[in-house]
Amino acid sequence: MLHSMTIREQIHKVKEQSRKLSTSDDGQRRELLGLIAEGLVRDWPLIQSANEQDCQRAMKEGESQALLGRLSFTEDKRRSVLTGITQVSLLPDPKGRVLEKRLLDEGLTLSRVSVPLGVIGMIFEARPDALVQIVSLCVKSGNAIILKGGAEALLTNRALVSSIARSAGASSLGNGWLLLLESHEDVEEMLSCRSDIDLVIPRGSNKFVQYVMDHTSIPVLGHSSGICHLYVDKDANLDMAVNCAFDAKTQYPAACNAIETILVHSSVAASFLPLLQKKFNEKKVVIHGDERVCSFIRCLPYKEGDWGKEYLALECNVHIVDSYQMAVDHIATYGSHHTDAIITDNDATAKAFLMDVDSADVFVNCSTRFADGYRFGLGAEVGISTSKIHARGPVGLSGLMSSKWLLYGKGNVVSSYVGDHAKTFIHKDLL
Amino acid sequence: MLHSMTIREQIHKVKEQSRKLSTSDDGQRRELLGLIAEGLVRDWPLIQSANEQDCQRAMKEGESQALLGRLSFTEDKRRSVLTGITQVSLLPDPKGRVLEKRLLDEGLTLSRVSVPLGVIGMIFEARPDALVQIVSLCVKSGNAIILKGGAEALLTNRALVSSIARSAGASSLGNGWLLLLESHEDVEEMLSCRSDIDLVIPRGSNKFVQYVMDHTSIPVLGHSSGICHLYVDKDANLDMAVNCAFDAKTQYPAACNAIETILVHSSVAASFLPLLQKKFNEKKVVIHGDERVCSFIRCLPYKEGDWGKEYLALECNVHIVDSYQMAVDHIATYGSHHTDAIITDNDATAKAFLMDVDSADVFVNCSTRFADGYRFGLGAEVGISTSKIHARGPVGLSGLMSSKWLLYGKGNVVSSYVGDHAKTFIHKDLL
After folding, report:
1. B115 vs A contacts (CB less than 8 Å)
2. ipTM for the complex?
3. CB nearest to A388's CB, from B118, B355, B394
4. Beta strands in B337-387 (DSSP E)
5. What is the spatial distance between Cα A191 and Cα B109, in angstroms, rounded to a whole number?
6. Which of A9, A190, A216, A402 is least enclosed, having the fewest CB within 10 Å?
């Protein structure tokens, strides 16, 4: 019914409708999430058949196994998506939290409370389960959503969005707060709608995220690259270092929080590197090593530019450093401020690393793969941000919130606090 | 000595130097602020003489009284600037605060701590006292600064920055974390240094702030216009409404938090408007009224576009609305999401207004002029943000902070939490 409107008009309409969601109470949003979950069960045959068509077309077009894996909306994924909706629904209400409260003067009370951002523009890969997760997080946080999923999932996304819209129509909040975009031109249009969209969250290739950041004046949350490091300190437990490196590189190499470079202190290189190579051989990890590394183990020699590469595959740089400071400097120079870890039994070195490394996530003695909204206990995540403003690292519900200042007075005016006989503020914190 | 480097190189140098500040402790930053304050006293004759030259040139060039007032660095301002440095210095350390803490599993503890943003790019008007205030806030929060002040204050700013650099040279943190830009071309260059600048805060005319927002992909915090409203509800105490309107319009009309439009419920218009006019006559406030307003009091008739004007002068729109909802809709349509207030004795209406109005500051029964970092008890402010992400409203120390996630493990790997026999997370909040 909206199709006679331009994309810009449709987006503006979503902005208008967003007020219903942003002023809703948690009960209404839980009701809506419940209806959405029921609707997905009801409409599952339609969704499944749409997904089969998407998958068949993708196969015909010779898409990779990895893409087909992400695209296919299996029974397993359906189950975990439905569990996810329930879990998100039961999280504490992120809206209306009193973040600060202060008595400015007798009868003049200030508070800062959390409020939804308004409208989120979300661009994501061909993963239908991600669509449902994103919608759950936005509904729970009271935000309207403009969605653009991967083109390969077009029919599945349409089936999902029409199911969700039908469910929403039966709720007290109604629908109109969700819009699915389908083309690159629509995304271009969206990126220019600054007054109607409060935040854009792009997921996808580095190049794409960078493109979005360069082509909109709407605030963008996300990360372009994930060049993560593991530093094996001179005081490291080497078995732990091998295990953590193996997990961080191989547990899911295509993830942004997988490591691309292992930095090894020279004093442990001779004992550590053979252990690493043995373990990495289990999964045939290709090692790109500097000259000294190549003198200890068999590896591809370092080429200009390797330190800045995000392999996203079973390949890994290994670089020997002569000091802690060289490791920290290497991370500052080549890292992407995403997730970096140290393996050390020296507490002072660990503390220094946490302070010195300027990344969203800085870890001691564990795998970088823990950098994830679910593992962090945020319920779920819409993405990981390497921006320093607003949310940094995995972005869950709280990253989808803004705040506003509320001031209750009894007729107070500023002129009473100025000039001779000026009253003074009390500024007493009440929280 | 830096002048043989390009602006881009100088900015990159500041980024490198920023690590000293961002890893400093509060004692070092207090020491630095103390030295800066002493230095300003020591160098006061130089600063004063530079300021006199700036003022003389501005007078010769026929600048407005308002600009001369802002430009002139009087003894009064010096005193308040020195007090300000001490006050900011004594605020609690905004760095290293533990914002969240969670046990993910036995031996795996996550925390989120506040950290400085890094490098702030600050563009501000010809107010030398503002330069000192901004520097204090940035130092206290551990951020390096690229400054561009109004051209009229060039000599004063140079004298201030060289005094501050001299003081910093004697501190344990050294200098190099402060750079003064002098030309528009330098600002253009700065806006393109995304990898070296973490946040840009522009102050100035709407047009200028808008220009900055449109011409950089660095995150920008600020507000372009301040179209603030006062809504006089049907249940308003009319004397209170008159007092608050008078303060909000006349106490400092050039401020962004001064009101531009008064919305009056039709049921109280006949009694309220003559009272308003009488009070406004004291300061010769020009009223632009809609047709109905003109039938009650003498005023200039409303012209197309008036609702969206930021007068910044003793002029004010007055508009009669027939319902609460019409007032809220008017604010949503014409406001700039800065600061809006309601005058009402009806608690339910007040609560609805706080919820329904999507502005950084929403006030009940007081003047909009309270929207200010100092009055809010934030110590001071670098500006007021109408953006919904990061800090919203007056931006004090906490708005200059980011956070990072720290995870301490004992060799934990993600593969233990996946597949058959997967361990489950504990996710126990420790704060």
Report:
1. 358
2. 0.92
3. B118
4. 339-343, 361-366, 383-385
5. 39
6. A9
Burial A40-62 (b: 16+ CB within 10 A, else e): beebbeebeebbeebbeebeeee
Instruction: State the smallest CA–CA distance between residue B4 and chain A in angstroms.
Output: 24
Rounded to whole angstroms, the Cα distance separating B289 from B320 reads 9
Give me the mean pLDDT over the A190-217 stretch. 90
Residues contacting residue A243 through CB under 8 Å, at least 6 positions apart: A279, B411, B413
Residues of chain B short of pLDDT 50, as ranges, are: 1
Closest CA in chain B for residue A119: B388
Q: Are B112 and B99 in contact (CB under 8 A)?
A: yes
B interface test, pick of A25, A91, A209, A358 with most B CB neighbours within 10 Å = A358
Compute the C-alpha angle B274/B279/B284, nearest 5°.
Answer: 105
Q: Which of A377, A404, A413 sits opposite B427 (nearest CB)?
A: A377
Task: Answer yes or no: do B366 and A409 touch at CB < 8 A.
Answer: yes
Q: What is the mean pLDDT of chain A?
A: 94
**Residues A217, B213: C-beta atoms closer than 8 Å:** yes
**Domains of chain B, CATH where assigned:** 2-93+117-222 (3.40.605.10), 228-370 (3.40.309.10)
Q: Read off the pLDDT of residues B410-421 as tens digits, 9 standing for 90 and up.
A: 999 999 998 889
> Of A266-270, A423-427, B208-212, where does the model show the most confidence?
A266-270
In the block, residue with structure tokens 């100035």: B204
A403 CB neighbours in chain B (<8 A) are 392
**Which pLDDT score is estimated for B379?**
81
pLDDT digit string, tens, across residues A122-168: 999 899 999 999 999 999 999 999 999 999 999 999 999 999 999 99
Q: Which of A221, A394, A407 sits opposite B366 (nearest CB)?
A: A407
Sign of CA dihedral B415, B419, B423, B429: positive
pLDDT number for residue B214: 86
Helices vs strands, H then E, count in chain B? 14, 17
Nearest to B219 among A219, A377, A409 (CB): A219
Percent of chain A with pLDDT over 90: 85
CB B410 within 8 A of CB B105: no
